[in-house]
Amino acid sequence: MPSPVENKKITFIINPRAGAGQAAALEQLIAQYARTNNAELAIRHTESAGHATLLASEASANGSDIVVAVGGDGTMNEVARGLVGTDTAMGIVPRGSGNGLARHLGIPLNPTQALASLFKSEELAIDVFTVNGKLSLNVSGIGFDGHVTNLFGVKSGRGLMGYVTVTIREFTAFREFEVDIRSKEFTIHRHAFIVAIANSSQYGNNAYIAPTASVCDGLLHVNLLKKIPLYRMDFLYDFFAGRVGQSPYSEILETAALQLTTSEPVSYHVDGEPAGTSNHFDIVLQPRALKVLYPSNVKRVV
Q1: CA nearest to 80, candidates 112, 113, 109, 102
Q2: CA dist list (Å): 125 to 82, 239, 256, 290
Q3: Distance from C-alpha of 288 to C-alpha of 90, rounded to nearest angstrom
Q4: Residue 158 above 60 pLDDT?
Q5: Is the pTM of this model over 0.85?
Q6: Cα distance between residue 94 and residue 300, in whole Å
Q7: Residue 59 CB contacts under 8 Å (≥ 6 apart), including other chains
Q8: What percent of the chain has pLDDT above 70?
Q9: Which residue from 8, 50, 238, 297 lies 20 to 30 Å from 186 (Cα-Cα)?
Q10: What is the Cα–Cα distance from 270 to 150, expressed in whole angstroms?
């Protein structure tokens, strides 16, 4: 089967701050793969927040068939903003700390392997959604995870251990909040510690917040989590075992659009990036709005 990038115009957008070094070697490898597949290649580097969106939009307008995001979840989100609703497909070479969408799609986390996979991939139209107008591809959250993300966003150290450190420090003080949730299918009132809105199955690092979620099922999987008693911290294992939905501390709802109103302003995040606070959230799915490339050897439903 011919490569989907063979004889195509392809732009790589690289976040030079993501990942650990070896940028020059990676670019040489990109050029090598492009030559082998007779692809017309352009490489662009991001310079500031939001720059990837501008670069992706320009690449699409200038005829790129594929735009590849090289970076973490934030870079992927920015590139997607410039491509949603267009015929230009997004490729992914993950170089972040969580890589939730890449893991869900079965894209290798090693950059060299991801590149090899990219040039032997298939195209898939996936759902995306917005939270108060902000685009989300993977998982967004309201409550404790938003609080931690907002705090973590101002720290210089990234990575799983840094996130765990902030989480442990803040867990005891953060309290459940009241939330009214309305959709076409239900109207409910709950006390929640986290409201996670999932398009794909995991936050990243194989922590599954919505194990049965699919990026092309036309649904959002909304996980309402209660605060876990300290004596039940074994519950955290359920995230990595894919059993979170079976816990009495979890309630998962499915819908394509919902509105949430909280009793007070609550922190939230969008695809792991801090988004501030609000007490009202409009969340809307956009079905099959973004074309992505994923490995052709991934057999499971994505």
Answers
A1: 102
A2: 15, 27, 16, 5
A3: 13
A4: no
A5: yes
A6: 20
A7: 11, 13, 42, 44, 67, 82, 88
A8: 92
A9: 238
A10: 10
Cα(96)–Cα(11) distance, integer angstroms? 19
Pull the structure tokens for residue 102. 């890449």
Residue 239 to residue 250: CA distance in whole angstroms:
11
pLDDT in tens, 248-273: 999 999 999 999 999 999 999 999 99
What CA–CA distances, in Å, run from 175 to 147, 193, 226, 239?
Answer: 11, 7, 10, 21
Query: CA of 277: how far to CAs of 168, 173, 175, 267, in Å?
Result: 21, 17, 15, 4
273-295 and 257-270 strand pairing: antiparallel
